[in-house]
Amino acid sequence: MKGIVFTEFTAFVEGRAGLDTLDRIIDAAVGESGGAYTALGTYNHREMLGLVDALATETGQTPEALMTAFGEHLFHRFAEMNPAFVAGLDHPFPFLEQVETYIHMEVRKLYPDAELPTIATERPDAATLCVTYRSRRPFAALAHGLVEGCLDHFGAPVTLRAREDLPGEGPGTAARFTLVAEGGG
Amino acid sequence: MSEDPGVLRRHLDRERRARQAAETIAEEKTREAFQANESLKRLNEDLERQVAERTAELRAARDEAVAAQKELQRSNAELENFAYSVSHDLREPLRMVHSYLELIRHRANADLPPQVADYLDRAIHTTERMQGMVRGLLEYARVTTHGSPPAPVSADACVKAAVENLELGLEEARVSITRDPLPAVCADSEQLARLFQNLISNAVKYRHPGRRPAIHVAARKRDDGMASFRVSDNGRGLAAEDKERAFQLFQRPGDNTAIDGTGIGLAVCKRMVERHGGSIDVESTPGEGATFCFTLPLAEGDAAEGGSAAG
Fold it and tell me: Are B140 and B155 members of one domain?
């Protein structure tokens, strides 16, 4: 998993719960990197799961809810850091439809070894967009948060009507999100 | 921000290690980028060298082809001049041979034994045939060496001139000649008349023994600035194997030894058409007739009208 996700996560925890909490969860998670994350690095995704679990223990919230909240925060940060990806768009549908063909392609140019999830989209009708997340890693909740962040970013009248967990390579590795636009897509 | 010195120290330590890790990664990336750049530079140099080599090869090949083409043109011109000189110079001695043979027959025919008189007739006939061939060769060589520059000319007038030249033969064979209105073309008028004359006399020569000969001349304007002519007859026609060699020098179709001819007329036609930038071909069904098709550039006024049929 790319280091940017870890540095954003530590900033997210520090910002929301303070440095003491961050220090404790890093200590509790006992990851092999010892919490010394850099955006340029690549780390085992299990470290992220360990950090979220430690944060859940610390706060009493579920890891699922925390990962989703972090995903929402992460979308806003990505949009700030990469304005070109959202420029010229005023609706979440076209943005989500180009994640696989444009954003992931650009990421692979910079990081040829990046192991990215697949994001497939389909429009059963003009007002509905189905986004299917599939990965070898269990980050469906993070994807959920990213979708929520996306809807919030564009501010368009679109609601996430359903999240359906799909059979995949393990729990949390595949999910379908059904988004519905009010008054047509 | 925490007030616990332990937390702050650990935080500082993590930040320091993260910075060191980032520096190491940045250094590796810089090295990788440098090496990739070096490889790219070498690849580029290699490609430039290959392009330069290939360009030099192509240039050499082109120069060679241009030199070969010039040599071929020179050699062709030399050969044409040679053919013209030879056929021209052969004419006179051949005429002398023919005259002396005629003289012998005229003065001594009554005294000659029948077999010798027969030999003499054969010699005279062969000499006449040879004179025909030399004349044909000379005409063939003259197409390129003595042609006039192409100019706008009425194809109608050329067909008319050809028919007038052949008048006696056509009347004798009771030939019916018809033609559609023909366009003006850019051609050597003498050669165009000769071309029609050769094709018409060829049609008469190879007429069907059981039919009154009928010849029709037609033409249409094409979009590419050329006129497409068709000279059709109802004669004996050509077998497929004869069609292929019909336009070669000294080639005569099938078993037609009884028909007088040198096998030069159609070769001359082809040379004339090609000299004008056109092409010639023949369509035929044996026993039903033949159609000689050839193209010539349209005269400017006619070409501008574009594509409309002339008849």
Answer: no
Nearest to B222 by CA among B102, B105, B307, B96: B307
DSSP structure class, residue B112: S
Shared-domain flag, residues B131 and B61: yes
A90 touches chain B (CB under 8 A): no
- Taking the CA of residue A160 and the nearest CA in chain B, the distance in Å comes to 36
Rounded to 10 deg, the angle between the B265-275 and B189-205 helix axes is: 150
Whether B138 and B271 have beta carbons less than 8 Å apart is answered as no
Same domain flag for B295 and B184 = yes
DSSP string, B193-230: HHHHHHHHHHHHHT--TTS--EEEEEEEE-TTSEEEEE
Q: Which of residues 8-27 of B touch A (CB under 8 A)?
A: 8, 10-11, 13-19, 21-22, 25-26
A169 contact B CB<8A: no
Residue A152 has pLDDT above 90, yes or no: yes
Are B300 and B158 part of one and the same domain? yes
Instruction: Please state the ipTM of this predicted complex.
Output: 0.78
Please state the φ and ψ torsions of residue B151, each to the nearest 5 degrees: -145, 160
The domain of B83 spans 1-146
Question: Given this model, what pLDDT does residue B306 score?
Answer: 45
Single residue among B126, B146, B166 that ends a domain in this structure = B146
Same domain, B195 and B117: no
> What's the rounded mean pLDDT across residues A75-79?
96
Q: Is A183 left (phi over 0), alpha (psi -120 to 50) or beta?
A: left
CATH number at residue B128: 1.10.287.130
| Residue A165, H or E segment | strand A158-165
